[in-house]
Amino acid sequence: xxxxxxxxxPNSPIGTIPTAPRQVLFRVFQALFYNYSPQTxxxxxxxxxxxxxxxxxxxxxSPVSPFSFPSMALPKNSGNLVLGIDIGGTGMKGGIVxxxxxxxxxxxxxxxxxxxxxxxxxxxxxSAIAKHFSWKGLIGCGFPGVILKSRIMTAANMDESLLSxxxxxxxxxxxxxPAHIINDADAAGLAExxxxxxxxxxxxxxxxxxxxxxxxxxxxxxxxVPNSELGxxxxxxxxxxxxxxxxxxxxxxxRERDDLSWEKWAKRFDRxxxxxxxxxxPELIIIxxxxxxxxxxxxxxxxxxxxTALASxxxxxxxxxxxxxxxxxxxxx
Length: 333
Description:
- The protein is of the alpha/beta class.
- The chain has nine helices and 15 strands.
- The chain is globular and about 50 Å long.
């Protein structure tokens, strides 16, 4: 046990939580609820739909017709294999994870996120991914929103019909497999602190995923502070003067929408990271998500005053972390 100062309160269920983690939690709520001005205070549940396709179809690894995948031959399940699925605003990726190595077994499969992303449509894609791998074991799913006891509480870049859905139950109903659900950025962060850039790091480590939106995974001494969702903190748009969600300004979709050069986008993203640094004082900020493929274009331009690194597992971190979470929560049941 670390020799940290502790707060003791008689008859309180949180009376023995170490001081430092409580400070981290306080900063999370401060970031979510008290940013810039009273006029913009408050966490807003927003459901925007940035995608346009009306169908679900493979767009990268497997050039096959919708839901008609060839079966994949797997090694004998040693107990270290879990199917990880990373649900995003534009794509849903899945792969078999070898937890002994923190690596995918074979190639992943990627399908476009359905529009609208109703529970039935999302269930169809999850079912198709499981069938592709002929999978009959644990499934871990990362979802872009707040997750409480497997229920979807926010769905900023997905359809609002998913709100309050028990996603673990939906996955089990569609695949017959036990499932665990975790916030997608929390999953990516879990992978990085277990196998990657954050492994063995003490203090506050923050992972920021950059894609359709901005996700965040916050860790203190390797322990997850779940559902931080720091892509929704408020920032001032210097061009319009309006207060907006940070992901509307600094995500990769914002870069594409505003037709920004990598240099101009990096300035926005750097300002966002400096804001997070002032709130949480992390020892390390890890950058994950789809932009990891273009790290050479923006990482040298960042000036945030702490160590920064690209996610070691790249855009597979969410898949790996979802599998890790499933094993941690369901592996002994």
